[in-house]
What does this fold into?
Amino acid sequence: MTIISFETPRSEPPKQATCPDPMNSVLGKAQLIIEAFTADDATLSLAALVRRTGVAKATVHRLAQELVKWGLLEREGSDYRLGLRLFEIGQRVHRQRILREIAQPYMEDLLLSTHETIHFAIHDGLEVLYLEKILAHRGLGQQSRVAGRLPLYCTATGKVILAFGPESLFIEVVRNGLKPLTRHTITSPARLRAQLDRIRLEEVATEFEEVRLGYMSTAVPVFDRDAALVGALSVTGPTYRMDPGKLSGALRTASMGITRSLQRVL
It folds into this structure.
C-alpha cells in the first residue's frame, strides 16, 4: 500500500471572492450619494445625504462638490439635486434605448385603441424596470413611472417575466418574500406558481388590484428573434373599465409588431 504524506508545506487556499463594500471606496461612496435620491426627491440637503448614506459629513460634502463639477449633481441654494448629465448619459444605454424607440409607436397605437395607460417593462433584479409609459389624460398618473420599479410578483409585466424566466428567479423572489402591497396581492408561493403556469400556457398575464386598489393590468411577453424574452407590454386602467379578454388581442398584435421590428435591429 502506498502511503501519501501530507507533511509537505501547504499552499495558501484560494481566497474567496467578496463583494466590495461601497463604504471602502471613493466611487462606492459617490454611488451612495447619487442613489440617496428617490423619485420623490427634488432636492436633498447635505444633512439628508449624510443621514441616508451613512458617510461622514466631511466626505459627503467633498464628494458632492466633485459631483457638481462633473454635472452629476447640481446646487439649488444650499441643497443638491440630480444633474442633467445623468439624464444625458442614461440616454446612451444602447439596447434599452433601442427597445424603447421600437416599442413606442406600438404603445401609441395601444393608447389610441384603449385610452388607458401603456407600459413597456424589462427585468432588473427582483423588479420590473419601466422603460416607457404613455397615458391618456385620464390615465394612471401614480404608482408607476419611466425608470421606476415595482416587484416582479405582483405586477402583470413582472408576472410575465417570472413566467418566462428561469426557475432560479422564481425561487429568489419567493425567498425574498411576497410582501403585500394591497389586500389582493398574491403572497402564497403555490398560488403564484399556479398563476405563472397558466401565463406560460396562455402568454397573457393579469393582476387584479395587487399593486393599487381600483386598478388592474394585463400584459403580454415581447420576444426577440431568438425567442428570448426581452420585456413585457401592458395596459393598466381602472378595474371597472378593464376587460382582459378584449385587451389581449390588441396587446398580442402590438407585441408581434415590436418583435418583428426588433428582428431588424438587434
Observations:
- The chain has a mean pLDDT of 85.
